[in-house]
Each structure stands twice: as C-alpha cells, then as structure tokens.
Amino acid sequence: MKAIVFDASVGKYIRTLVLGKISKRFFYNRLSCIQLKDIPEPGLPSENYVKIKTTYAGICGSDLNLIFLHDSPSTSPFASFPFVIGHENLGVIIEKGKNVSEFEIGERVIVDPVLDCDARELPRCPSCQEEEFSTCLNITEGKLKPGTIMGTCSSTGGSWGEYFIAHKSQVIKVPDSVKDEEAILVDPLASALHPVMRNFPGDSDKVLVYGAGIIGLLVIWSLRKLGCKADITAVAKYDFQADLAMEFGANRVVRSSEDYLEELAKVCDAKIFKPMIGEKVLLGGFDKVFDCVGSKKTIRDGMWLTKQRGSYILVGLASVVKDLDLTPIWFKELNVRGAYCYSTENINDCRISTYQLALNLIQQFGIPYDKLITHYFDINEYQRAIEVASSKGSEKSIKVVFKFL
User: Which stretch is the leader sequence (predicted)?
Assistant: First the structure.
C-alpha cells in the first residue's frame, strides 16, 4: 500500500534539522525523515481488531510539528519507528476479527486514535480506570508497539496510508446523515472540545481564544453550540481567520500586531506596565485564556493576559521553549492547564467520549465544512499538501485533507 512514513533515525533527524535551515522544503523532500513509500498493509494483532480502508485523512497541526521537527525528542520513547503519519481519519471497514460483532464489513467509520489499555488489550491502568484515556500509563506495552495515538505507532498504520487497523473499542460508526466532509472534522472538533469541556467558562466570564486556526475556530464554535454566553475575544493573525472567528461566535477579534496588548487590555480592564528591562506586563486580564498556538510569544503573553487566579489553558502543542519567563504563574497564582488529544467528558450527568460528543454535535448542528476544509489533495501530492498546510497566510488554508480514491 502507499503511505507517508516517518523514520526519525538519528542521522536523518540531524541532517534534516541542518538542511531545514536552508529551506523548509528539506523537511519533506526525499532527503527528509518522511517519505511516500509502498509498504505492506498492517495485519490484525488479534481477533478484536478491524482493518479500515482510508477515505479521508486530515493534516493536523501536530503532524506539521512532527514534520518540521518541532516536537521535543523527550517524547520519542512513546513512538515506534518507522510509522505511518496521520490520525485524523475516515474510512470503511474491509476486514474484521472473529470477536468483532459490533461492526460489519463495508461500514463507514471513524477511529478514536488514542492507543489506551483497551486498544492494547491490557488490564486498565489507573488513568484508564478513570476513563482518562489520553493519559494512559501503558502506551509502550501490550499488543501494540509504543505509540500514544495512531499515527505514532508502527503497529497500527496511520491515516496517511491506504489502510490502517484499530481495536473495536476505538471504532465509531458514522451516521448516514453525516457527510464525509463533516466526519473528517470530528478529530479537530474533539481536540477543541476536550479543553472546552474541562475548562468551561461561566456566562459572566471574559474569555480569550489565542489563535484562529482550525482548533481556535472550533473552540469558539463548540463554546457557542454548547450554550456558552461568555464574552469571547479571539486573536487572529489573518483577515480570513478573523472573519470566521466572528462568524463562529466571537464577540470581537483582535489582530496580532505590535500594539495588540493595549487593545486586549481594554477589553478585560487590565493595566499595562513597562518593566525596566523587557516586554510589557499586565495586572488583571481574562478569566480564561485558551492558547491554541503554543509559541513562545503566545505562552508568554497568554499568561500575562490571564487575570490573577484565572486559568491559562495550553491547547497548542508547545515543545521546548527557550528563555520563557514563568513569573506570571506564581506572581498571578495562575491555574495552568494542559489539554492532550481527547478523553471522556461529563455532560448532562453522563460520561461520553470526546470523539462521540464531537460526532453528536456535528449530527445535531452540522458543521461548516465548506469553510473549514480549504484544500483537498491526493496522497501523491503530499509535498504540495504540506506546503499549503504550513503556509496559512499565503494559501488561506485552514484544514487540508487527503482524499483517497
């Protein structure tokens, strides 16, 4: 089968880092850690697994972090190389084990990518017993090789390949009323819902959503669809992002610019001060800040923009951040929260997987896929797809997907 494979041998990793300083194309050309290859189809590890033929696969910001080697090497023990990239998925079951009675051949499905104790066919660890699957303690054990999610595990394959496998506990049927283009957005919506559900604002709160890429936009969208009446400010880099942020329910959008801190301070009644050396700092701020970027600037400014004893939620996948001043954490007694993947959420006194909740919201409200999915590519065009996905301003890209014929 054709698949885009990531192989981070030490030699390739160092070579790609060096050549990438010359041109970003060295991160995804034939000399890089990623290659389009013909590889064997993955086999079923047990009779509790299914094989899925890929229909759509999305390019996630975490995939771009991987390709451009922005991820910290500290996470390398929790992956198995080489692996097929891709976890945003939609496909059709083409094979199933004898113990799979819940699904049939030919059914259209999505797969929750988290490779927890259930997927590894192990007794549940303390995290999985609490249904906190994204923090599973057995991500290197069991039936599968190491990998936190599909798309980092050499056993499962990934959605950037023609076929991948999944344990029956991961599989969710897609209702006939949900279009393919809507279903492929379940994963980014779930990624937005997880921090939203764990940090839901009160109606009187002032909320800052930092970043108006796909996750930031869907944080705003999901807050409004779930009935949040808080005052929401979004920070957007580009005009097309700002327009969508307003359409999705932001009360206002502030463009990231030289004086944007002053504009944001007015919104949340914060006071700005200039230290003897360094950048401006703030007293006061927003009740909750969802940082959907995770850069040095957004982390630094995002924490200072959070009010005393407020909540700063890191949604963007930050890695190694050099020379980051952590003063606001203790000075303002901030609640600093992280959000990784998806898990199980509480809603209306019920427990539901984040993936299923995302699918339910799409089924209930629909989702403006025609505005969110901006580009479609064949897998053979992967270099161009990566170029477009990583050039948001010039390409006006939001969600870029591979469409398998």
Answer: none
Q: Do residues 257 and 264 make contact, with C-beta atoms less than 8 angstroms apart? A: no
pLDDT in tens, 121-140: 999 999 999 999 999 999 99
CA 100 vs CA 44, 123, 169: distances in Å: 12, 19, 10
How far is 159 from 90, CA to CA, in rounded Å?
8
Q: What is the pLDDT of residue 73?
A: 85
Q: Among the listed ranges 346-350, 357-361, 381-385, which one has the minimum average pLDDT value?
A: 346-350
| Percentage of the chain lying above the pLDDT 90 cut | 91
> Structure tokens of 19?
């050549």
pLDDT band for 219, please (50, 70, 90 cuts): very high
The overall average pLDDT reported for the chain is 96
**137 class by beta-carbon count within 10 Å (0-12 exposed, 13-18 middle, 19+ buried):** middle
Give the C-alpha separation, 135 to 362, whole Å: 26
Tokens describing residue 149: 């999610």
Q: Are 307 and 299 in contact (CB under 8 A)?
A: no
Please give the Cα distance from 48 to 144 (Å, whole number). Answer: 13
